[in-house]
Amino acid sequence: MLRLSKKADYALMAMKHLALQSDRGSSSAREIAEQYDIPIELMAKVLQRLVRRGLLASHQGTHGGYQLARLPAQISVADVIQAIDGPVTVTACTTDDGRCDQYAKCNVRDPLWRVRERILTALGECTIAELASEPPTPAPMRAAVLHTHL
Amino acid sequence: MLRLSKKADYALMAMKHLALQSDRGSSSAREIAEQYDIPIELMAKVLQRLVRRGLLASHQGTHGGYQLARLPAQISVADVIQAIDGPVTVTACTTDDGRCDQYAKCNVRDPLWRVRERILTALGECTIAELASEPPTPAPMRAAVLHTHL
DNA sequence: TCTAAATACGACCGGTCTAGTCCGATATTA
DNA sequence: TAATATCGGACTAGACCGGTCGTATTTAGA
Hints:
The structure is a homodimer of 150-residue chains.
Chain A: H1 6-21, H2 29-36, H3 40-52, E1 56-59, E2 65-68, H4 77-85, H5 109-125, H6 128-133
Antiparallel strand pairs in A: 1-2
Helix pairs in contact in A: 1-3, 1-4, 2-3
The first copy, chain A, binds a DNA duplex (30 and 30 nucleotides) through residues 5-7, 28-30, 39, 41-42, 44-45, 47-48, 51-52, 58-66.
């Protein structure tokens, strides 16, 4: 259902948090996890993966923590999502090597592929800086429910 | 990973097939399934759901089959996907009623919500007619593999 | 030097979802 | 009446995901 994983959610929340905290140095996994009600160990794992992907810088030991590795405006939502969930693949056959085993007869590969690119563009244009510039989502906007069946 | 289900894939393939076959009357589930190497029973189930959602019209009995319920240009990829996979929800908390249990502290709801809308727009702009106007994907375009790490 | 707090990382586990199968009922045509 | 469809629910094996646990390593400070 075109849904991104919870880990990706957590990653984006953390990235935004770190963008807002960037002047105050680094934040620890525990700090972020507690603030957003995320299981600490899971948060840690997510942050670690972001470090491995070069989106975050970490500092070990007491008073250690995480920082953004680049300017918030230089990090896109797509970067974060792909760091956590792997490459965005709309179709199962769209593997890195382009193998389409049984899908030799598939008739929608190319169009879906273009759809994928559009989605990727949308995700790529939205940066962490953009997230951070938002109001911190004051109250749970119940009024804004829309009819999903377009 | 923002991937749509195989059923949705099958649905799109069938819809395109039916768009191309529209002048020749209807096609049976068996017919379509065999042409694209899809398990017949699964194909049938997908087609039935498309009927229930009003995207296809069915005719029972011998020489029965399926037809598009509307003009190909009037059916979007979003329609098909949502008919099969349910509403497109980028985040888990985006349920129909807008409930966000633990996510009271979530700080990325609104921006992700806007991302969802952009994706939905992209899917909504691509119609079955557009799929059908494509060349039928001749050979598996191996050359067109791109670097997914944007 | 010792201890506490932090990152790093892999193994594991239970629940959920997905793809696919099976079966029976109904409808339509020849 | 027989063959061929659609219809629709029940079921299953396997993959995947969210989350947990345990342990090693690094670092700052008392």
